[in-house]
Amino acid sequence: MTEKTKLIAPRLPRGFEDRTPGEIAAVGAMIDKIKAVYERYGFDPVETPLLEYTETLGKFLPDTDRPNAGVFSLQDDDEQWMSLRYDLTAPLARYFAANFETLPKPFRSYRQGYVFRNEKPGPGRFRQFMQFDADTVGAAGPEADAEMCMMMADVMDALGLAGKYVVKVNNRKVLDGVLEAAGAVGAEQKLAALRAIDKFDKFGAEGVSLLLGAGRKDESGDFTKGAGLNQSGIDTVWGYLDAAQHYDLDGGKRTADNRSTVLGWRDILGSSQIGTDGVAELLTIADSIEVSGYADRIQITPEVVRGLEYYTGPVFEIELTFKVQNEKGQDVVFGSVGGGGRYDGLVSRFRREPVPATGFSIGVSRLANALKLTGNLGASEPTGPVVVLVMDKDQMAGYQAMVSELRKAGIRAEMFLGNTKNFGKQVAYADKRNSPIVIIEGSQERADGKVQVKDLIAGKQAAEGITDNAEWKAARPGQFEINRQDLVAEVQKLLSEQ
Fold first, then answer.
1. Is 399 assigned a ligand-binding role in the annotation?
2. Are 479 and 450 contacting, i.e. CB atoms less than 8 angstroms apart?
3. 342 annotated as a binding-site residue
4. Residue 310 labeled ligand binder
5. Of 117, 215, 256, 357, which one has the fewest beta carbons inside 10 Å?
């Protein structure tokens, strides 16, 4: 390489991240626990490719002149546009439609994998991230939605988050009925009202009332235009938020059970047919939750507003209730780690007959962060291999034989393949690999039919009480001699003790 050769900076594109062995192992263990719950409920795995034809992705279809709006797209050699999947739900809809004749109905599946968003990245907002979904396609009743919520509660319990979460449930039909009763007209006014309801936990009664009306000015002086409802409409929405004393006005504490909340909404909705239909579905969900023993973990609440356009009925979110500090050092509730709902229209893009569906998506990275904060992730580095050190370069075959014996016994092992001139650097390498054991065979040990076994874990523990370097070298903590022929048995024994 000449002096003028320009080196390439080892940088990642914005919105992407590398993962370490420890992170991979910890997330893998978390995913295994989620899978176990999903499979206990009768769901089976399905895997779809990273790329789909762009038209498959529905509302994320790019326009002709700008094929990368929202998704990462490329053109095939037959001039067909393909895109990296934006979520795991649209590919499922395509899969179900393509295999409609052979799949059981209802079809219960789970899927795990990376999804991609061609959007501006920011703190906690990535262009590539992992989702873990479960969906039931072909079941129209609210019982399927209730089961989805119960499964999510069981997932949280399995991950050690019992008492630290709530599964919140609402219904888009009820929300539409409330807007109808409040006199909201037009898509813009309805969307502004829904956004105001969505801010209930953040801004409380006064803030929501302002956002439902003329608007709200925050502490910085920025003004957010409101929905423009009249006072009667604002009172209707506030009655919905406060139905059956669902919250007290001082602290936002829940004071009503699920059924009482829904019955309170029924009185507010009046003659709205869509709202009445939503109430009937929620009453069925409330009863299923109650008889199954989940009422303490699953709550029907007014502020759940799912933003995706294809939700058609019940919607739900998992909210973690413990507090963390934000970038300003303020205590805030951790918030949502997953959500979903009923999307009865999505599969019908591929088939003429209506196909009901309901599902849930977990944000794997965000959930892993939550488990890390609560001490439930197990994010320590995975145990490395047993490392056979190389003391004599002309004896490589013998060292390789040791490694092969250990591997055949099912023990993770490797021979040191770096610069073998420095013994200390070989041990340091094993330390860095998080190795539990190193094997040492010099010329004297070979002549005597022996090998030295160094227990790095015990050595680290013993060394904590030794302050003098000479003393440490003399003690050789964690190191002992064995017969060469007993290598596999002794390593197995030591690993089991560790």
1. no
2. no
3. no
4. yes
5. 215
- 355 three-class SS: coil
Beta carbons within 10 angstroms of residue 204's beta carbon = 15
pLDDT of 368 > 50? The answer is yes
Same domain membership, residue 39 and residue 24: yes
370 and 482 share a domain?
no
Question: Does residue 134 register a pLDDT over 80?
Answer: yes
Question: Does the annotation list 446 as a binding residue?
Answer: no
User: Binding site annotation covers 306?
Assistant: yes
**Among the listed ranges 194-208, 262-276, 291-305, which one has the minimum average pLDDT value?**
194-208
Asked if residue 457 lies in contact with residue 494, where contact means CB atoms within 8 angstroms, the answer is no
Residue 64 lies in a domain: yes
Task: DSSP for 210-235, please give it.
Answer: HHHTTEEE-TTS-EEE-----HHHHH
Which domain, by its residues, includes 438? 386-497
C-alpha separations of 341 from 162, 187, 308, 310, 458 in Å: 22, 21, 10, 9, 51
**CATH number of residue 430's parent domain:** 3.40.50.800
Distances from the Cα of 373 to the Cαs of 92, 158, 329, in angstroms?
A: 32, 16, 15
Confidence of residue 106 (pLDDT cuts 50, 70, 90): very high
Residue 376 DSSP symbol? -
d(CA 336, CA 334): 7
Comparing CA positions, the residue from 280, 288, 319 lying closest to residue 301 is 319
Question: Does residue 136 share a domain with residue 102?
Answer: yes
Residues 377 and 391 in one domain: no
Residues with Cβ < 8 Å from 90, sequence gap 6 or more?
52, 56, 57, 58, 60, 346
Say yes or no: 394 and 367 in one domain: no
Give kind and range of the element (H or E) at residue 453.
Answer: strand 450-455
369: Cα separation from own chain's centroid: 9
**Rounded distance between C-alpha atoms, residue 300 and residue 70, angstroms:** 32
> Which residue, chain included where needed, has tokens 């709202």?
275
Is 117 labelled a binding residue?
A: yes
What per-residue confidence (pLDDT) applies to 255?
Answer: 55
Query: Is residue 178 in a domain?
Result: no
**What residues pair up with 362 in beta bridges, in sequence order?**
132, 338
Cross-sheet strand order for the sheet of 73-75: 51-53, 81-84, 73-75
Can you give the CATH number for the domain in which 362 is found?
3.30.930.10
